[in-house]
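Provenance and format

Records in this collection were gathered into a single text stream. Each protein contributes a sequence line and a token line. The two records reproduced below are adjacent in the stream.
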Amino acid sequence: HHHHHHHHQMSCDYKLFQELRGHDEDVRSLARVEIEADGFRVASSSRDKSVRVWRSEIGAANDCEAVVLGHEDFVTSVTYYGGGPKDTKQGSGGDTSFLATGSRDKTARIWRLRYEEAAAKDGESTSTSPGLEFSLCECAAVLRGHRYQVTAALVLERSQPEGSEPKGSFLVATASLDGVVRIWKVGADDVEREQDKPVQVISDHEGPVLCLCELEDGTLASGSGDSSIRLWKRASGSDKTFHCVGVQKEHTDTVRSLASLPGEIGYLSASHDTTVRSWGASGAAKVFMGHSALVYDVKATRTAAGTVIAASASEDCTCRVWDAESGQCMQVLEMPGCAWAVDLVPTSRSPLPLLVAGTSDGVVRVFGQSLEDGLLDENLVAAFDAAVAERKAGDSKAQDAAQGHSPQGLKVEDISALKDPGAKDGQVKTVRDTDGKTYAYQWSVISLKWECVGEVVAGPEDPASTGAGASSVVAPDKMFDGQHYDFVFDVDVQDGVPPLKLPYNRGENPYEAADRFLLAHSLPQSYREQVVQFIIQNTGGTQEPSAAVPMDVTANVDPYARTRAAAAYHVPLSDCLRFEQCKKDSMMSKIREFNEGQGQEMRMSDAHLGCLDKAVVLSLQRRPVAEEADLGVLVEALNLSLLWEKEKMFPILDALRIILLCVDSEAVMSRVIEGCPLFDIVVKAVDHPRPTAIEVTVLRLACNACVASPSFAQSLFEPLLNSMAESCKSKSKPVRLAWSTLLLNCAVLVKGKAEIDPTLLLSYTFQAASEYVDVLDMDSSFRALVGLGTLMTNDSSTRALAKDLGLDALVSKAKQLGGRMSEVSSDLQNILRSS
């Protein structure tokens, strides 16, 4: 071909020709419903908690065929699945397909759409197919398990579930702000089936996952708040799990939307960094520049001419049409509000697909390129243009207002000021309500509403120092991490992320509060000034900020003034705990008694018994054993007695526990380990069945070994944890105490760089702490909590894991038990807060 068609067709002229009205609030997501028809169908999901399926005939009436209800919070995403291979037999009649939705109610749902063949109307010739009519929509499955809002739900059309005939079931991928992608298996005929067991859980992203798409070759792509895109391929062979096969990190901010490119193994990504990028099989990206704010959605499709075009939707209130090959913008469509969603729907009426846009005013709008003039409704277009013009006028007004808002005095406006949208997320307005009181409102990009932060009151505290007219926002909820603060602000840092709490006390240096906040949420330092201004504005700092706030952060204000007083009570622990109590006489008489009953080959001589006795005495007096007792004889004695049957071995192990208390325990221990298979014996002793006496003595022995021979304790770590994990449910208090002490000692060893898996240790310790708090075993749960605090000190990954396991709830429960339980709980709260 001598010229490419798309070189000269670099612009297009989409015009509005339809509005689909019915949603009460923002349309957040769109999906084209591919059911054969003269017109087209599209599904929209909304903040109003519903999904609607629209049928639109070009040049004819359009209607809402279905309103899909069931989610309990706003529906963030909707995708369509045609239902797999269709019967080609004529007369099968009708069509079954599926919608997958994700919601802020933390669930994803799969819905079955059923269409029946429409009966031919009187007078119509029966030769033309009468088309399909909607007959029902039912929920097939509810997928539960994500901890936060589900951002995407997608049927994987190119991956068959294991072991099922292709029609019986299909795989679904879901993504969430909890940073996890889950893969589920859904039966094609399920109805209202509740599921909480995914087939696979994928959690390599370091931030929330906001979008998913499936590429032509079955690769799954996920985009995240960590600015990366990850590609996942399903292993061939028996292992049918997805593995990461690539990571793309070109975007500089959250990746918000992904779309597969038709006919090739490539895809498009839209990001909060205002760009859209196209990625080929080689991984090279082309950048589509043009949007001036976050890009929320991107879609691509083929034109009748065979070229590929893309459409994007942005917070800058525009949708853009792009030539996907060159990356050139072909048209900018201004919208009356924030453009959340866009889709492209091929149509026989025009060489270019229809463009469907979903916006913050709750309307789904359909735009067409070069449709016959008779199809355009002038009144509709005029009203739309007016709405766009009004939005633009409002924008510039809001900008002026935002600039006029000074941190010096609070500027109080009339309540009507809340009719205009905010200029940027987190913007604050102070308004006087009809009741004569003054309230602070904050603009939220997530809800697109002015949300009331609290009443503004003049500060009676200390009029002298703050000057008259000092005022402050009284937040409705002033508890944060179990402490009282003068203010606790909700700060929406970005859309798609739960709001962050900013605690602040009157008189505190705002720069220190800001640093604490940025540190706590790992936000970039570039936000510092903004956070400081936010604090000053919202607490009515009336003096010159520079005077009130010396830039020197080490100034005389101590941001932790309230928490320092409660400096850490118990965390972290730096030295291991040991079990030192011993009833020597009864222990030795038990050993003599059991020794009498042994056969010749396992019986100790008097010399052996004497040596054992002497070693125990020396150890209790903290004297060196190696110098005053014969270690050779001691090792012989152990080699005999440690072969006794389990029921009789425990006093020997107990004697060994005491010997580990001696001053030269490391030397003694290395000699014992060298001369006797202690490790194997201990591991075998705790095999089931095992008497409680063995459990207690082995655990206590291991605790003391943490000091005497950390390397031995370290080697025992996994075998003991694995075979004794149920100790956390033991009915015996000595077992519980020894178990939590061992976990605590291992935490101390981890901090001393021992080769112990901190993740495994944390989950065992957490389990023990919660079990023991529930049975009100104070001593054991106290030690487990100190272990948690020790593990979490200066380690953000274990802090994150502990939060995920539910540490906040556990700590608030423990706090109510008073005394040192409440003290260690405060320690843990401080660690969590500093994270």
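Adjacent record:
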Amino acid sequence: MAQYPKPNAKKIFFPCSSSSSRCSAASAAGDDDGEEEEEVKKSDDASTKTIEEIKADKTTTVTSKNRKESIPKNHIDAIIPEPTERPHERWVNNKPYNPMSPTVGQCEPLPKTLPKLSRGERKETAYDLLIVGCGPAGLYTSTQASAKGLKVALIDPKPLAGWRNNYGVWCDEFQALGFEDCYRASWPRAQVIFGDADTPEENDRQTGKFLDRAYAQVDRAKLKSKLIYRAMENKVEFGTQNVKSVKHEEDDVSEVTLSDGSVVFAKMVLDATGHARKLVDFEREFTPGYQAAFGIVCDVESHPFPLDTMLFMDWRDDHLDDAYKSVNDILPTFLYAMPFSNTQVFLEETSLVARPGLEFDDLKVKLKQRLERLGVKVTRVEEEEYCLIPMGGVLPAFPQRTLGIGGTAGMVHPSTGFMVAKTMRSANVLVDAIFEALRAGKSGMDAADLVDESIPASDSTLFSAKSASEDIWKKVWTEEDLRVRTFMCFGMETLMELDIKGTRQFFKTFFNLPRDVWGGFLSWNIGPTGLLSLGIALFASFNNYMRYTFVTSALPFMGSFFANFASAQNKFDSSRWGGAFLEINTTPKKMPPTLPGYGGIPTPKKAKMNFSETLPTKDDVSMDEDEEEKEEKEEEDDDDD
């Protein structure tokens, strides 16, 4: 893959408190539990109330007290939502609003131990479903499958580890899934600022487009705690090893070898390892675009973001110096911001999609310059986030015996990067299909006896994992879903061709469409007919410049798009002109010679930086040749490791 030239760059630092480790909501909840127990023991009313009633009373008191003590001095502390109150019901435009959930950080601490594998050592005691990966996709699927009575094993070397990335969701989607109690914060509306005014001063005053759709940040600790305890209640069993190999030599059962040498048998195996794609097979090279983002949860002296609005996109670039502005003209980035209070905010500089992905060091410089323009002074960093999401690319080969869910199965929105709600909806379809396959399969085995007691023990119907997997893949990826994904991959490739002017005009037109149209597209809740209508509506609304830009950007991919959209195949080609003129397009877009740091996709090791030092000024982004040679040698050594 061609790489952008990598000029000199210096690592960027944000100020941190003395401890830069991430705060643990689960740990905080554990401490609160201990305090509650002590107060319960001291209660004089123990003789007239049950322990549960006393704990409930004290929980409310302690929670309210702790929340008030933790609110910054400049916060709108006069408005503290009640625990049972839906925050958006009390929202009035231009009135004080507290986006924080009244129960943020309040969750049952994760258990110290999990139920261990107790079966599956022989074919006769095989699990119905073995899931590899304990992220949101794998853990949620385990709860849904076990709720239907299936015997489920979940394999992950660290199943109790916290989830690293922050998840943003549309509230209507998460509420439909039953997780509206798992918000850290929520906002009744979102905002998109296009930055297309004639002067920087006009851009500073630009409000852009307000989106009448509530948005939330997920409370990761609470969501994981809820799912872990639900899984335990449903008798999911956990293996804390890595999966070494999976063999599908027999038609009714698969053999899974773990890293400790043990073997576990299961009727169906599900790969939920995310973008690692550990187990599923691909027929063609995986060539996605990459959404790259660097974000911080931080304390600030003040910020300009209204507390009732989540900043979904801010495409302004007047803050950038000449070198970065010339790059942003070709590879634009935007600010994504979630204000939690008057003095705390989540800020993320994001590249929507690029191939190869943008480097984190460059995103840090751009975020620093943006904050200088906004007059935001960071006083402490609570958490840093390095986010790199593969988008688009080919789907796994299917049908195949190993099933897939989440990032490993191509369920990341190819044009936006959203995936949590889509994955959970798909998991419900997948679990229903597994349930039906096992119910219709071999009796005399645990699964069939459990899910359909009407099947007589003498029934000789054989369960075929091969036939079942074919049916399951077809239900998870229907022809309609394949056409929708092809359209979205086509949109992703077109977006990567647009410069900053085209990007601004595209989103300005897109978000002026009716809410059910742009909302359906962002939520992956729109059919092929709706997508075609969306495309026609966009083109009709474009000005002449945008029509020309859009056509010239989309033209190299139209042949592959129409062929795959019509046939509902999984063969959309991300190369220009289907690779017919690949020799003409082996180099990326021409970059300015002064470009300070754009290069290939950042590796995880490159993200290990110390943020205890002060941010340098934008004049400090160069290093002398000796420092550069030293850093390049260190990177070569890292690659050798």
